[in-house]
Fold this protein.
Amino acid sequence: MGRPALLLLALCAAGARGLYFHIGETEKRCFIEEIPDETMVIGNYRTQMWDKQKEVFLPSTPGLGMHVEVKDPEGKVVLSRQYGSEGRFTFTSHMPGDHQICLHSNSTRMALFAGGRLYREERFRLTSESTNQRVLWWSIAQTAILLLTGIWQMRHLKSFFEAKKLV
């Protein structure tokens, strides 16, 4: 098919810049960016597959994404996270200096072909978990209402019988 290509639209720290490069399935691309102290960095990105035969970018596969890792000048990890095929990542530098920003594709050939199925399974799992959570809270609310109604009925009947002087 093709190889994953990463299109990093903009990395905004002190100014807006853009990068564009190809990443193989197992490749990792790093670059060093000098970032001032306490600066919020926002990176907008898009990953796409390159079709060698047609020499065009294919629409993004839902299973295709990237992993971003950012290290500060002392080598401490500031950000290490998996992202989808398109979006943005942000981090704040807590010390001035050269920060290492590494990107690599999360794909394998299997993931690229199964991307649509994995995406549907993930959506189904999230929907199931959400429904399960709602059912749990609904049953807790019903139980609380049932208990409160029972307590109210017992107090009401007790006061009724006391008023009639039957107890």
User: Anything to note?
Assistant: The longest helix spans residues 109-163. Residues 1-16, 109-114 have pLDDT under 50 and may be disordered.
